[in-house]
Structure formats: structure tokens, C-alpha cells
Amino acid sequence: MKRLVLFPVYGLFLLAVLSALLLASNLHTYHRLTDEAPIAELTFRNTGPREYEATIAYGDFCSAQRYRLYGNQWRLDARFLKWRPWANLLGFDAMYRIERLGGRYRDVADENAGQHHVHDLHNADLPDLTVLLNRYGGRWSPVDTLYGSSVYDGMDERHVYRVYRGQSGLLVRKQPLLDSAASGGFTIPINTACGDRQNP
């Protein structure tokens, strides 16, 4: 009789353990496949008709650079390496290399007639690890694909634009910029100390 009573207890315990393992596995899979990391922050200052000074911090976020852009939108281009899902689950995060920053126009007619200027942000002296990894393709390669990924948004002085690396491309989110009228300029708020952010 005692064994008959214990059997359902053991069964319920094993069922609870199995359910917990399945839940943990699902949460891990969701976290790995939706992981994001900040890779750049941008602010803008209007300097003339459809002309802006862009301030961008990226890499180790220790220093900001300024560029002149034309249009009413900005665009950031990067080379992007996407891993296969099983490699993501093993801890591989997507790799990127920021390449260009430029302006663009909302209206196609303005885009064709307007002034353009694109800035090269890539250091040609550094080896391109994404290209090297992409050479080792094949059925068992952890590399899924290598491609260009871009994000763009409006140039609004009232917002800071944060660019993130997802597992399948770039994305951007904007937040209201802290009031800096008292200081007479615009600042890029960095949430962590210089060099603390991780750049995969």
C-alpha cells in the first residue's frame, strides 16, 4: 500500500522537474534568438536647410565623432554575419562591422535631386573577421549568411537614436534627449562607463 501511495508522488515530482526543464529550455531559446546589444548612439543638430551635424558614438563608446549630413533622414550601414540558430543557442552572437553613415531624403524626387554625402566609418587596416568566417561555409558551418544590414530614421534634434545589433540584423530605437539647453549643446547619454559596453 505504501508503494502505491509513493508512486503518484514520484510521478508528480518527475512531472514537475520535466516541466521546469522544458520551461527553462524555452526561455533560453527565446533569450538567445532575440538577444540584442547596443552598437551606436546618434544625435543631430540642424545647421541649415536640410543640413545636419550628426554626432555618433560607437565601438567602445569612449569618444564621439561628428559628420555633416544632408537630407531629413540618416542611414547607418553595416556588414552583418548571421549564425545558424543552433550556433545562437550555443552562445554565438551575430557579428557586424559598421561601414557607412549618410543622409537620405524622405521624398524620392528630393533624393534624386538633393545633395548627398556619405562617410566611411570602417578602418581598412583592420582584418575583416566576418569575411574570413564566411569563407568556411558548407553544410556543417555555423555561419548562416553574410549580408549588408541598414537602419534609417529621421534627424530630430529632440531625440537620441540608439542602434542595436539583433541576431538577424540592425534595429533602431529613439528616446527623448535630455534637455541640454543650459549647456548650449547636445550630449549623447551613455548608460555605462566608457568601455563597459560589449561589442561582439
Descriptive notes:
The protein is elongated. Residues 180-190 have low confidence and may be disordered. With 200 residues, the chain is α+β, with helices and mostly antiparallel strands. A hairpin with a 5-residue loop joins strand 2 (51-58) and strand 3 (64-70). 24% of the residues lie in helices and 38% in strands. It contains 4 helices and 9 strands; from the N terminus they run αββββαβαβαβββ. It has a 5-stranded antiparallel β-sheet, with no helix packed on it.
Average pLDDT score: 78
- The low-confidence runs, each spanning 5 or more residues with pLDDT under 50, are 180-190
Which range best describes the helical content: under 10%, 10-25%, 25-40%, 40-55%, 55-70% or over 70%? Answer: 10-25%
- How many β-strands, per DSSP? 9
N-to-C span: 60 Å
Q: Major beta sheet, specifics?
A: 5 strands, antiparallel
Rg (C-alpha, Å): 23 Å
Number of helices: 4
The global form is elongated
Strand order of the largest sheet: 3-2-1-8-9
Based on secondary structure, the structural category is alpha+beta
Query: Quaternary status of these chains?
Result: single chain
- Strand coverage percent: 35-45%
Order of helices and strands: HEEEEHEHEHEEE
Write the layout of secondary structure elements.
Elements: H1 2-33, E1 37-48, E2 51-58, E3 64-70, E4 73-83, H2 85-89, E5 95-104, H3 108-113, E6 118-120, H4 129-134, E7 143-154, E8 159-165, E9 170-176
Antiparallel strand pairs: 1-2, 1-8, 2-3, 4-5, 4-7, 5-6, 8-9
